[in-house]
């Protein structure tokens, strides 16, 4: 922190000279090092100066993603497939589905309540077909969807939770839990996402395409990516390093250099596009071998990739996971709404970057807080942005559900390659509705016609 400024001499109540800090202890600094501004103001100013110094120097930022065949993503996808199958039968069902995949076992647990839900046999078929669709159809690939032992531990939703969500006298839906949720957008990319996580997602998506299209033979479903970007301030300037770990058949085990060359040619260069440069540090399977993968090698659990699912660590996270939860669970629905708001704020030209913070109390419809933080990049007053947000976007659970169409069976595609930075409708009607930028004009009108180009 910069040194405190010299103390400003002022006159005491007795008319004698003295330091501000001696007279008013709420002012900044130790005695003799004060300029008469409040302590909190001085601290914030000093921290802001430090932040400016950090943000203008060259620095790096790293994010990771994991493929649909990663054990945790297998679990996420199963949970969301179960959710979708229940919503097809009863759009108003309450679902909180957790999945464990490990060794030769599949365990599906959680709470499901509704007027018409699939029976156990139907849910088991959904689970097995979902895992097979990922590519796990034999034990030598890391898991066998049809031969694995299956156990269901589903029970009804707690009546105490139900009375807070559905049993309100005013007919409104209460939030399904307490918590805080964050949404983020930045003009680093056309998708209004941070560049590191976006490229990391695209790499594992390309790995899946290379595997299924046989662009690189004998790849298998499990994979991870990691991308480090160099920044000047908050502006990305270059890719510094790329890591891809991809599961493969034994045929590649003694040909690591050849696999790296194939990965660069068919996965990394096409994905990075204009961001590719020959100075990038490239690591492909740095351990030298990745034959054993999937749930057969590592246990997968629903909800363990919450940073991958969101912004790669660039923005804050409230801690709640998404997959397997119906839209009354504000961990999911309010996070989607917060992203929708932040994306429209940036698209409207109000800021280069925007973080939206929401919080809720279980059983209560209105949020307990709504905050907009543009990290100093705003073009209009943040209080004006907050007011416009409250005017334009519904923030109760029922309002969010209606506005984003969250009663539809749209969730399984969100379980892989990120919940954000996608294209509205890319996986079918109604999918990724929170990625729309259709509230720009409404926001500008509510803010008094303000608009700027980002």
In short, what is this structure?
This protein has 454 residues and is α+β, with helices and mostly antiparallel strands. It is 32% helix and 22% strand.
Describe what you observe in this structure.
The strands form five sheets. The protein has a four-stranded mixed β-sheet. The protein has a four-stranded mixed β-sheet with strand order 8-5-4-13, covered by helices on one side. The protein is 32% helix and 22% strand. The chain has a domain at 179-187 and 315-446: 2-Layer Sandwich (GMP Synthetase, Chain A, domain 3). The chain contains twelve helices and 15 strands. With 454 residues, it is an alpha+beta fold. Strand 4 (94-102) and strand 5 (105-113) form a beta hairpin.
Strand content: 15-25%
Instruction: Write down the CATH class of the domain at 179-187 and 315-446.
Output: Alpha Beta
**CATH second-level architecture of the domain at 179-187 and 315-446:** 2-Layer Sandwich
What percentage of residues falls in helices of 4 or more residues? 25-40%
Secondary structure layout plus pairing:
Layout: E1 9-11, E2 17-19, H1 20-23, H2 39-56, E3 58-66, H3 71-89, E4 94-102, E5 105-113, H4 120-134, E6 137-138, E7 143-144, E8 149-155, H5 159-165, E9 179-186, H6 195-212, E10 219-232, E11 235-248, H7 256-272, E12 281-284, E13 300-301, H8 306-309, H9 330-347, E14 353-360, E15 369-373, H10 382-392, H11 397-404, H12 440-446
Parallel strand pairs: 5-8, 11-12
Antiparallel strand pairs: 1-2, 3-10, 4-5, 4-13, 6-7, 9-14, 10-11, 14-15
Helix pairs in contact: 3-4, 6-7, 9-11, 10-12
